[in-house]
Design a protein that fits this description.
The chain is mostly beta strands. It is built from three helices and 32 strands.
Length: 417
């Protein structure tokens, strides 16, 4: 594996390169004679024509959904025109969004303990389900028929029928003496639910069909975030009470290994092919790269301050990391482990979402109450990494969306003309 430190190649900021598309008609404040203008027109026209070839087309009319914790709303943003189509009122304190498979519905959960179901393209709440004192980590069966959501404070998993939009049952997982629960994941085929129990230092396993607990396994201290391999064979958990993560075999529900890392883990991200697990530590601003097949820590890399979210392109070419401590988003070439760019997007980016075509990155910023759009297609990343002053910044635009945006999702749906 590549063992050198991250090599950083930062672009020069050139926001004016996008001025023709983002801020037309800006006054220059300088008046020229007609002869001077005549001599300038041809070079300017040539530059404009060259720009048409150099810059990619604007984003397709995907819709970004942004959960605004402070304004109790979900903003629907047209990514082609960079405008908020609608602010959709939801239950207080939305924190997470989940897209129901094979449908056009978005589920919003948060502090109120409610699940708001938003319908597209109507952009309205069609049902609100109250599941408890809090609600988080909605997961779905692959066909989107059933959903499961944590009520962490009560130590319960709530079962939902997505077609009828009703609760169908509850399963206490943490036990009356052990709430709250940490996080919830579902195996790819939709048969097994896995929940982390920080108080009990264990993972709990339950079936989706039988609604019964089928086992548990003791892991490290204060298990929190979970990440499954894509084939569902193995689950990794961040043991937030110590400097390690644990790997568990899902079928046998047996511990496979405890892996020591340099600091306390905060959250994890699996590569799409399952070959590596990325382990992020907010306190040390590092990322550990783990061989997920052999349970071996390959290396540790620095990130920006307080890494809070990351996303990987489906082709596994690039990784993007949101650093809440310095207001930046890092773009990393996953093959060479090289930092291609570090773009300031605001004060405290909180969530990331790639457009389905992989050309643009939506960045929610909790402190700025804004959504930033970055151009992240291969040409843009190569140009920025080459540090050519004539190239634009990765940052395309920012827009206000609502108070304290906490999450963002960009489904594969296109806005109607």
């Amino acid at each position: 594996m590549h063992n050198s430190h991250f090599r950083t190649s930062l672009s020069s900021e050139a926001p004016d390169a996008w001025a023709g598309t983002l801020a037309p008609g800006q006054p220059r404040g300088v008046h020229h004679s007609s002869s001077v203008i005549h001599h300038l027109l041809l070079p300017l026209l040539a530059l404009c024509l060259a720009a048409c070839h150099r810059y990619a087309a604007p984003p397709s009319p995907y819709v970004a959904f942004v959960a605004n914790h402070g304004s109790n709303s979900v903003a629907a943003v047209d990514l082609a025109s960079f405008r908020v189509m609608r602010g959709i009122p939801v239950a207080p304190g939305p924190e997470q969004l989940a897209v129901r498979p094979l449908s056009q519905e978005v589920y919003a959960t948060g502090d109120s303990g409610s699940v708001d179901i938003i319908l597209f393209p109507d952009l309205r709440v069609v049902k609100t389900l109250h599941v408890g004192a809090s609600a988080r980590d909605v997961v779905f069966t692959p066909n989107g028929r059933y959903a499961f959501v944590l009520d962490p404070s009560e130590g319960q998993i709530v079962f939902l029928d997505c077609d009828s939009r009703w609760e169908t049952g509850r399963l206490r997982v943490g036990g009356p003496e052990n709430p709250p629960l940490g996080h919830l994941v579902i195996t790819p085929e939709g048969a097994v639910l896995i929940a982390s129990d920080p108080s009990g230092n264990r993972l709990m396993f339950a079936t989706t069909a039988g609604r019964e607990i089928i086992g548990s396994v003791e892991v490290g201290k204060a298990p929190g975030a979970l990440a499954l391999l894509p084939d569902g064979s193995k689950v990794f958990v961040a043991d937030t009470g110590e400097d390690k993560i644990s790997a568990v075999d899902v079928a046998s529900r047996q511990i496979l290994s405890h892996l020591e890392i340099n600091s306390r883990p905060s959250w994890l991200l699996a590569k799409p092919d399952g070959g590596e697990m990325l382990v992020f530590s907010r306190e040390s601003a590092t990322m550990a790269i783990v061989d997920a097949f052999h349970d071996n820590v390959e290396e540790n890399r620095p990130t920006g301050r307080d890494p809070v979210a990351a996303v990987i392109k489906p082709d596994q070419s690039d990784l993007f990391i949101a650093n809440a401590g310095d207001g930046s988003v890092m773009a990393v070439d996953l093959q060479t482990r090289t930092v291609l760019a570090s773009t300031r997007t605001g004060s405290a980016p909180s969530a990331l979402a790639l457009t389905p075509d992989g050309r643009f990155l939506a960045v929610a910023d909790r402190s700025e109450s804004s959504l930033a759009i970055l151009r992240v297609d291969p040409d843009a990343l190569k140009a920025v990494a080459a540090n050519r002053r004539s190239t634009p910044s990765l940052l395309l635009t920012t827009m206000p969306v609502g108070a304290q945006p906490a999450d963002v999702k960009v489904p594969g749906w296109l806005r109607s003309p």
